[in-house]
């Protein structure tokens, strides 16, 4: 198998394919592209191995520690996918809180924010998203340290970082589901915005990097000195 490359192609050389028909994250516009008989000169190619090993051109001109992390690219890139997921989940909490403080509970006939159900759901969901954000910040602090010192993280450290990313995403979906389940049927109106925001969180959390099985297997196997399956290795 030949070497893998990342490449830069001028806008005029490719066609955007309008195929982004999705249930969540509609606003990202993550459409496909089509290239037909496009020549890519060597100066627009970057070996993927150079990106993964922090020996690419960015390490020369950038002082950012993230460009100097000598480890799998997931140690850096996956955080930049997790961060907006956490932000969207905070948005779900904001929408829930705004609704609950303004409406009447249809069963109790009392202000919804005075009812135990809403209070308990909001408190637990708020804690979950707070922990997800703490995991993100803790991870980034460690990754910045590696990029600044040029240290090579050991496998157990890599496995811990990836586990934290996956678990933070799980906390986001748990918080979102808890709040949506606590809303009455008035929340299905488009004007309520709760379900649209929840759909964005769920769509974001479906990204392959947040799938827990292989990542959790790799964490435990690495910690206990068991050789993880190839797909699960950090």
Can you lay out the helices and strands and say which pair or pack?
Elements: E1 5-7, E2 15-17, E3 32-34, E4 45-47, H1 48-52, H2 58-61, H3 74-100, H4 116-149, H5 155-181, H6 194-205, H7 212-223
Antiparallel strand pairs: 1-4, 2-3
Helix pairs in contact: 3-4, 3-5, 3-6, 4-5, 5-6, 5-7
Question: What would you say this structure looks like, in words?
Answer:
The protein is mostly helical. It has 2 domains: 48 residues, Butyryl-CoA Dehydrogenase, subunit A, domain 2 (Beta Barrel), CATH 2.40.110; 160 residues, Butyryl-CoA Dehydrogenase, subunit A, domain 3 (Up-down Bundle). It is 52% helix and 5% strand. It contains 7 helices and 4 strands; from the N terminus they run ββββααααααα. The strands form 2 sheets. A two-stranded antiparallel ribbon has the order 1-4. The longest helix has 34 residues. It is globular. The mean pLDDT is 91.
